[in-house]
Amino acid sequence: MSLPPVGLPHLIGLSGILFVIGLVGVLTRRNILLILLSLELILNAANLAFVAFSRAHGDLSGQIMVFFVMIVAAAEVTVGLAITVLLSRLAGKLNADEMRNLKW
Amino acid sequence: MNPVTSIILAPVIGALILLVIPQRQEGWIKRVSAIATLIPVALALWMVFRFPVGEAGYHWVHRIAWLPALGIQYQVGVDGISLTLLLLHTLCGFTGVLVSYRIKERVKEYYLFYLLLIGGVAGVFASLDLFFFYLFYEMAVIPMFPLIGIWGSGEKAYATMKLTLYLTAGAVLALIGLLAIYAVSGTHSFDLIFLEHFLRQNPIPGDLQRWLFPFLLIGFGVIAPMWPFHSWSPLGHAAAPSAVSMLHAGVLMKLGSYAILRVAVQLLPEGAYTWLPWVAGLSIMNMVYGGFVAMAQKDMKFIIGYSSSSHMGYVLLGIACLNPVGLNGAVLLMFAHGIMTATAFAAVGHIYDQTHTRIASEWGGLARQVPFIATVFIMAALASAGLPGFGNFVAELLVFFASWNTHRWAALASILGIVITAFYMLRAVSTGFFGPLNPRWVKLQDATLFEKVPYLILLAALMLVGCWPKLLLDMISTSTPAVLSHLDPLKAVARL
Amino acid sequence: MVTAAGPWIILFAPLAAFIGIVLFGRKSKPVSAGLAIAGMVVSLGFTLTFFFHSLHAHEAIETAVSWVELPGLTLEFGLLINPAAILMALVVTGVGLMIFLYSTGYMAEDSSYPRYFAYLSLFAFSMLGIVLANNFVTLFMFWELVGASSYLLIGYWYEKPSAAAAGKKAFLVNRIADFGFLIGILMVWNLSGMGGEARTLNFLQLEERLPEILHSGAVAPGLLAAIVLLVFCGVLGKSAQFPLHVWLPDAMEGPTPVSALIHAATMVAAGVYLIGRVFFLFWASPEALAVIAAIGGFTALFAASLALVENDIKRVLAFSTLSQLGYMVMALGLGGYVAGTYHLTTHAFFKALLFLGAGSVIHALHTNDIWQMGGLAKKMPATTFTFLAATLALAGIFPLSGFWSKDEILAVAFERNKLLWAVGTLSAAMTAFYMGRVFCVAFLGKPRSHHAEHAHESPPSMTVPLWILTVPTLIGGFIGIPQYLHHATEAGLHVEFNLFVALISTLAAVGGLGLAYAVYARGARPGLKGQELLSRLAVPLSRKFWVDEMYSWINQNVQQRFADLLALFERFIIIQLCVNGVAKVTGLAGSLLRTAQTGKVQTYAAMLLAGLGFLLYLNLK
After folding, report:
1. Helix (H, G, I), strand (E, B) or coil at B192
2. pLDDT score of B85 more than 90
3. Is the residue at A3 inside a domain?
4. Phi first, then psi: what are they for B129, rounded to 5°?
5. In this structure, are residues B72 and B192 in contact, taking their beta carbons and an 8 Å threshold?
6. What residue in C sits closest to A30 (Cα-Cα)?
7. Among B66, B175, B387, C49, which residue's CB has the most CB atoms within a 10 Å radius?
8. pTM of the prediction?
9. Residue A83: which domain range?
10. How far is A3 from chain C (nearest CA, A)?
């Protein structure tokens, strides 16, 4: 069985699937940890698209951009997880809908 | 160093120095603030003495390119009108610091905001660039918010919110007008000196001027305060701490009429010619309506507050006359009224700090207990009622003469206004200071020698100008022709 | 010796005294009194030099500095010396000096003595300014300053609510009058430019231009009359003519020497003096003069009737002053410039003397009520004699000063208007009666109170000024005042002595005095007070025809209601409805839009997605 070579459409398709999974996760989940995980999926979907296009166009700047995204993602996860830990200590649970102290 | 820039910078630098002085060094905080406001007084006086009377145009101009691509530059300088107002401002600013020595809580933050406010207001008077004009204006409004909100009294939260929103809303309206001038003049420059010259040769089309003028008029009129946009001002004065009331009624309100004069009338003469009869009409409401409302007030600060909005009607009327006498009267009255009202607010504040009530009928007979403050207040009240010997009389007299043949009804209303003023001012004096001493106040302290200094400075300035008005009029009248020169000569000549 | 600086020195000497007292004399009685008196002496001395100079040189001396110079408006601060001004300045400084001296005795026990002398000096300065001013604006400035300094002096004992209220009332009534005066000045200013020249308010220039302007017919008689009557409004206030007379009786709350200075000799005379100063203007409008004469005549009669039943010695004198001022205004209204000014001068002397005499009695007895006095003739001989001399002069008994000046007024009236002459004669009779009544009740008979029994004469610092003032009271008719005044102005009417008028007025005076003596000299007891001859009339009289009540009704029910109404409008319409209304609407809009902000991140993300979808749709369509 010979599979067709992996080309740009496959990669973009995978990126799209990952993005949608992440998006649905962000929209439907209530647990902050899972929301953060879904967010990572979205970011990585974008990364995948960057790399794919970079390869297709033979232009390295897409891959450079991925490094930036990874750094941002790392920073975001660090801060996000720190907040999550503090919130779970404070409230004892991780339900995003119940965190409404700043809303009035 | 350019003296005008120094006047703006001195308080700002003072504020920066305050940042590094520890909170508990109150003595140093006060001293630095006093020096940072005294330097501008000295500089303003120096400029007044060195002012080249008879030479029109701006002097001591200081220009630094800032955003040349957008036609924005830091440009300051003074003519007779703005120098008069700068003198008023620096005097009120300095005496305000002295009066504030009584403040006990959060001294450092108080002076910090106060000095920023002083710097901002000075910037407005000195700016010769419309962008910076607006910038300084906002810089002056913002410190007002904490100053009243934190150190004020009474309904301070409501007052400070209302005041800030009102002034900002006015500023936004004015900003529309300013940007429109910037755009439609086709110069793409905020440079006021350049705009003046350019628009004299290439005026904005008349119809457009008539459209734009109300934006500037109402926008700045809110601060002036023009009826019916005045209601923020008595409340704001009443809620603010003494020094802020002084600066507020004494100087800040003059920003509005100054801006109407400098920007609206000067750059949009056709618009002014069309709309100023309406201003004269509104000034009647200011003078008479404001006076009657003052008559119904019980709280001393509200009496003076409504009196201020009533007397700013004379300033508006003077401007509305569009003749040299009226403009001179208006500018002189801005000065005189500023000093007078600052004095009155300081005196009321002195008593309020001890009695914690400003209801005139609850005072009673204070002249026996605090003779100095009582004398000061009576003098301020009589000055306000137009007693000769004080600057207010000369200025109001000029407005009467100027308006008699241009806006007869408004002139009659303005003369009626000083009768009304006499009624409420003398009643305030009678109920507050005369009669038997209310036994609650036997422990009231009169001003100490040091506390007398600000009052003496202010009253001396007021009487000097009242007895010899040429001190300022020579300077002001040097610069008024430029304001009117934009008017169609035919329209200007037939007046007065 | 007359110098250019002379007029300025006359004017500024009292001001210098005032400043000196404020700076150095606040703690010391002798320093403050000394400075004040020195100021007056200097003024008086320089006035005298001008007086002697003017005896042989009649031209006016003018000196001015430019005060405001603007395109279209030039105002100067200047002084003008002519015979009328010199005469009035002599009265102000001369009578003023006597009153200053008298005050050192009268106020000796007062705790804020330096303040008193400071105010007096300020007042003298302001009054001299009115006298010497050479134009309307300078005059108006001092006019207002006089108002303010009298406010301070009447309310001198400010801890007494009635005194504070009286001071306020005086200032406000004058302020209302000045409303008209100021409009009048503005109209005069316009009038002066009708000949095509630059407008001016200078008296001499106005006098020069007026005939031309009138001749050209540019000004309608009605307009001229309006201008004159508006200027006259100022006189109504300062000289307390009906209907603005209400402040003067209340002003008796001030210290008695103040009443003598302000409310007899100087401030109230300022109005009459003003008419004289610009008599050329008044003379140009016969219609206005007729109104003025009528007001003057009415005030003379009206005030004299009020004095008939008054029991407060100072208020009797106050009503008498009103009545005499009415006389002067009537005289000027009839065109008798010399007559009016003449009476102004003599009246200043004998009325000041009367007030000071009354002050001497009040000082001794500590009461103003004439029914608490009685029998003072033996105990206070100096006061009694001088008071009597002044009473007779005021009543118009030959050959005292009052006789001559009053007679001149009546002679003018006789010639111009018989009705006003009758009014004048009737008020002369009433004047004689009420003065006779006061004298008989207060000085004759037996003591009516404990205080009156133990009264004794005042110290020399008070009696010496009385004696000095008695001299002009007695001989004022023989020193040639009318002849001197003839040099002041061309306008006006000159009349000869009229024997018939003199006889009738003497008859009226003697009759009034005789009636008073008959009623009050012997049988007068406090008990009789209620059964007075005029008891039926007494109710409206003692309530002063309810004029005060009417004003206070207007003040409380019209003016204050209107103010309250506007304050309500301000509070509910402007603040609550408009300003807070805008805020409420903004807030409401905010709270509606806020529902879109759920606070759930997922909602926002979903909206984000929807927005993205929408944009994509727009793009791909």
Report:
1. helix
2. yes
3. no
4. -140, 125
5. no
6. C602
7. B387
8. 0.87
9. 9-91
10. 33
